[in-house]
Amino acid sequence: MDDNCVHYRARFRYLDTNLLHNFKTGGSLVSKYGNSTFLNRLYIYDGKNQKGKEFENNNEHRFKQTDAGSLFLYDSTVNSCTQPNGIYVDQKKDGCKNATEQKFTFGSVTDYNAKMENVHCSPDQHMVVHRADYGDFKSRGTFNIAANTNTTCNPLTNCQVKSRCGGNRSCELTMNNNLLPSEYCSDTSKEIYTEYTCMDNYSSPAITLEKVRAFKLSRRNTGFIEIHVDSTWRRVVEENWDKNRQKMLCQHLGFEETADNKIVTIQLGSGQNIATGDLICYNTIQPSGTSCCIHLQPSKSPPSTTIPYVQCKICDKPLLQDTNTFPDSVFSGSGGPNDNYEHARIIRGGWCPRGPGTTYLMLDLQKQYHITQVLVMADVSQVRWSGSYSLKYSHDKTLVDGSSAIPINGNKYGYKASITSLNIYNVRYIKIQSTDNQHFCLRIELCGEVQVPAPVKNLNVSPSDYSAHMTWDIPTAPEDSSYITYFRFFLNDRFRKHISRAMYGTAFNILPLKPNTEYTVKIDTEDGSLQRGTPVTTSFTTKQAEPVNLVALSYASLKVTIAKPPTYIKEVMVIVQIASDNPKPVESLKASDLKPYQANTQDPYITAYLKTDALPLTFVIGDGKEYNSEKQNYFNQPLKQNTSYIAFLRFFDTQNEYYSTEWSNSSTTFVKPPAPNILNIISISLKMYTISWSIPSLPDQQTIHKYYANYSALNESSKMLNISREMTSVTVAVEFDKRYTFEIQIETEAGRSNTTSETWLSHSAPLKSAEKTDDGYTVILRKPRKEQKIKNVTLVLLKSESSEPPAPEIVQLKMSVPSEAEDNVAFKVKEFNITEFKNDTIEISLRESKDNRRRKRAIEVYALASGTTYRTAQLNTDESGNLIWSYWSKPFTVPKGNS
């Protein structure tokens, strides 16, 4: 016997003939039972010749191992087993008692990175591996069974050898980093020591990787480890569970790592199907990347069984597991409503498309997301999956099909999730479909986070007095999410307005503001899912405002100067009110409070609506014109005289937002100047009249600036008269027998007075000059027109030596012939009733006296005096008593001594 089991001379192996062969000698272990020389000892017979070889290969020397571990001679006529005896090994005559001293264990020591050699049972037996430890078993070239072993590497070494070699006739594993990776076996300078025995008809009950049909966690990425063996799911009770094993298991299942790498165990009830032993996953140099060693014993759980509960991490922010945020309704697809699209959720059984044709799964994430990973898995039974997928996405459902397809890694194994890293933004709608031409099932998880709209940039505010113009830019990079639908605007930290991007673009007018005031404005972004970006803030100060000053312009108007507002202001409204002690604040006057002018109102009213294109402008309040908006007419009502008014301006921008100035100062209209008094309208000569007037006392601080006067005949155009400020009368030319109207008004600082007018009938044409006869003069009266409704016609004589006779209408008529001494006197000569006109004329003979009697040819009137000058006129009196004169005829003088 040799104490150094690793020495070459101590190494044996089974030959195919069931003989134990020695490496050193090349001979076999034999016995010569009953030989007196060697007693019953076993020895190595080195057969050098043919006879020796025949002896060595005799069936009497075949060994096998009993189930109890004893070495048994196959063909011995005696039931005998071998047993060490001192330095020898003897064949015991008393048979196999399966005593401890008769039990043998085969062993093998293999260097790291070397292939296991000569680990064999006889051809009729199978090995049972009892131990496969990793340690320094060849210290100083001598086998040391008591060597310290690597407690981290030992479990994997045992699992690999037991699961791969148990039940086999031989074991020829290469013990390198493919089976013993560095995360478990970092020291590669040691050896693997394997102990095994050989048994007849051995069938290992152990569960190994080859027997496992499916492999999962009970809750997809968390839960108990479960394996499917022989139509039964069993939960794994791993005896040496630690953080490293948990991490590697998660990676093997396709997940990144454990959630927080804590070891969690749970008490399992009794009587459940379990599998106890080793389940160790590790990295490999193979394309698959990981593998697992499984060596488990099936059983039923006893009471209070402690079992690992694994929590694998899909990613930092898995989305679809949140059924509140993503209800089943977010899942749809190309099939019918009963296709169970929601089963694609990773915690469900899997969506398996029904029927032929192109099938796809559609997800509506309800909001825009930044997606960083897509994880796909087979169905929960791990029997159907796809090797590749394509993904399309958009923020708009109608744009999904037009987007570029992104390849998504499919699954290679039913148990393993496949993760594709992405970096896509503005994702709301996702369409995913298999690119494999095969039936498949899909479970999916998305990783990412809600995409918050980017904040605005380049925020700029241009202040005015009562308003400010704000502009900004929108970032357009994909990660900035430019699909912004609204902006929220805050002023001094108070919410002011929800601004539609479609309506306002990237500009907004802030109004109303107070002049010369500091403000802080804040704006944030909002998308269609009500996600909001980071607010951006800036400060500004409004400009000092110019006051609204009213200035009296007339007794019916005031004027106000309206400056040019900022370009975004498009219209301005002028609001007027009779001044009061406590006018309503302008900011409280809403649109419904302001209406066009109404009579007898004391409320503010809109007197004009102006386009700012016409500004700057000195506007006259009360000019009597219309200034209308598109929807409403506004009459600029003349103001009341000697009345105090206030006004303010309201400016409107393009979005119909407005700001208002403060109420103006109070300004009082002038007192209306009095109208002139027409004193007289007197004829001064043939077809000429003088019109005179007087001016009443003017109000304080008013003087006459100008006269406005005209006269006109009935149904004829008027004639303007040029009258200077100093004049109080004017001479006008007329035609005979027409009705004229004279109008006059004055203008002062307060405006024009009322118009004063007077109507008169101009004289009719003078009578034909008196015709001299032998005994006097003949005068012919004209019959008036019928429409004049004349009642009486009178012949009037003017006794006057003057070349400028008085106006007929102002003379005092005497009823009798004047005395010789009287001059410039008019008297009635003869009056006729209109009925006395038998023809168009009446002829009257004027004589000095009745002494000169001749044949009577006409109506005779004795009214003349010798040496006296006369003029004639016809005076008509109408039915209303109005006097209608003809102008004086040419003078005639009665000769002296004519009587």
TrEMBL record:
One of its GO terms (molecular function) is carbohydrate binding. GO terms for cellular component: membrane. InterPro entries: FN3_dom, FN3_sf, Galactose-bd-like_sf, Ig-like_fold, Lectin_gal-bd_dom, Lectin_gal-bd_sf, SRCR, SRCR-like_dom_sf. Pfam families: SRCR (PF00530), SUEL_Lectin (PF02140). This is Lactadherin-like. It comes from Paramuricea clavata (Red gorgonian).
